[in-house]
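Lecture 7 notes: from sequence to structure.

We start with a single chain of 148 residues. Read the sequence below before looking at the structure.
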Amino acid sequence: MLKILIPIDGSSHALLAVHHALRLVGAGLKARFVVANVQASANLYEMVVAHDPGVLQKVSEAAARDLLRPAVALLSAAGLQVESVVASGDAAQQLAEIIESHGCDAVVMSTHGGGLRSAVLGSVSQDMVQRSPVPVTLVRVPEGATAD
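Now the structure, written as tokens:
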């Protein structure tokens, strides 16, 4: 049984990868899933204002778990095994580490998520194609679709 990583950034585009994975399972693929969200590290201003790195970490983890909830719900509703992973730092680097530490066989992800960095092929998607030690399937976002 394959173990597939699905990175989730909270955009509707990221859920396209989940729907693609569900179609693969529907076509007979035997798989279990790791959904992951990588939060940006706290910046200097946040560290100065918060005074407590533990608070920043808790807020970051809570935000990540909240973003993962829809993906976990879709996969769980289909009766599939799913693990949630939260990390912080450089997204592509952390995702590559998650692949290694969780023994993932493949990655399924959207070509780009939300935000200004999603012009043609998202920078994280592009980095993953280059860094990933396992095959990466990119799910194309329909033309004209906007991220929320």
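The helical segments are 12-26, 44-50, 53-77, 91-102, 123-131. Keep this in mind for problem set 3.
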